[in-house]
Amino acid sequence: MLASLQRWINDMTATSETQEPPTLALASAVLLCEVIRADYRLEPAELDALREELDQRFGLDDEALAELMDLAQHEAETAVDHHRFVRLVRDECDYEARVELVRAMWALAFSDGKKDALEEHRIRRLAELLHVSHSDFVRTRLLEQQRAEGAAD
C-alpha cells in the first residue's frame, strides 16, 4: 500500500512539474466556470452566456472557443485549487480588467434568471482573491442585476 501511495505521489509531482502554465484566456475561463458550477447545476443559458463572454473577450474562432470551454470546464472540475489561475489573472491584468472579470462573473450568475447564494459566495471569494474592492464587487453586482431585470421585462 505504501508503494502505491508513493507511486501516486510521484505521478502527481511529475504531472504538476511538467504541466504548462495556463494562458490568460484559460485562467479567465476557469474562473468564470467556477461561478456557473457553484450551484451544482450547469444551465444551458449559463453555458451560452459563458460562450458569448469568452467570444467577446478573446475573439476566438468557433473551434478554438469550443476547445477553450471544454478545457476550462475540465480544469474547473479537476483542479485541486485555483490559485494558479487567480494568480495569473491578478498578475497579468490591471485593476480595471479584474473588475471587468468580476462583472462578467455576475453576468453569468444572473444569466439563468436567478441569483444563487452559492454563486454569490463564489464571486465574493474570487473578487477578494483578485484584489477587487468590496465597493466594485457591489457596483458590478447591481449593474448586472439591473441588466438582468431589464432583460426580463
From TrEMBL:
Source organism of this protein record: Halomonas elongata (strain ATCC 33173 / DSM 2581 / NBRC 15536 / NCIMB 2198 / 1H9)
CDD domains: terB_like_2
Boundaries of every Co-chaperone DjlA N-terminal domain copy: 26-141
Bilayer-spanning residue ranges: none
InterPro entries: DjlA_N, TerB-like
Domain of life from the UniProt record: Bacteria
Lineage: Bacteria, Pseudomonadati, Pseudomonadota, Gammaproteobacteria, Oceanospirillales
Gene3D superfamilies to which the protein is assigned, alphabetical: TerB-like
Entry protein name: DjlA domain protein
